[in-house]
Amino acid sequence: MRKKPNNLIRLESLYPRMFFDKGLYNYLKRLRTGYLFEQIIDEIFETYNYEWIIVKGFGFKEKYQNVFQIDLLIFTGNKVLHYEIKAYKDPVIYRGNIFEIIIKDSNTEKSNENREVITYKNPIEQLNENRIYLAQLFEKLNIELPIESYVIFAHPNYYIYELPAGQPFVFRGQLQNHIEEIKNTISPATEVTQNYVSYLEQHNQDITKDDYQIPNYTFESLGKKLMLPCCENHIVHITKHQYLINCQSCNRRFTMKEIAEHAVFEYQQLFNQSPTLNQLYGWTNKIFSRQRLHSWFYKQKKEG
Ligand SMILES: [Zn+2]
Q: What is the pLDDT of residue 66?
């Protein structure tokens, strides 16, 4: 299972508790979609069951404090495959350094004159940058494997018009072919490969690169709600001796302690520290008694 990015965890905890403007909401949606498609791509590679080692996400802060994050690395016996996974959906036209989104309009002639042009950067720039950072790190760690880099466009409907040949791009529909081709060029991972992965993992930092500024918040400024760990539902009331609760959306079942543990986790993610008993009592909207929270989380501290 791929680890959920920190900023996604934080935003999911903040969303029910504060106002999100459109920009922030879109950022949350982007992170969610990105994470979802990364998991889909992980699964496709995993079905191959080849003797390679899959590293799902790698973050690193290099010496000039540049943060780089890599979506997927596949270590084989003779090379490392480096993938950036993009969840773009709308078809685009290739314009060199930028991609232009094609805006569909029923009134085509009119729209061609006044149409708004939306563009974003060609991801090849990020791909090349990350490959350079990665190669520098490999050199430092004496990982002697060449790196081969690709962008995977994970959304099945995505398409780039006027794309010149020879780009390191893999569309979703081509992914299986791509893996088949790759398989003819790689050798199985060895013990040396395993060691390389261990060195690298030691340098894996839990870094998330925010491309959108998350507004400041405080304990006081956030809404107090007892959230379910699965969906965007919160608990309004429980009975005194209630032990289990079902999510109305996904029907998963949680114990009260699991719900409280999730509340503690959210608090820790948002404030980088653990709550005191009083904070946790407020944070969970006073739905659990102080006694219950105490017996779950604070008892040992006192005894020890
Ligand atoms: Zn649910």
A: 76
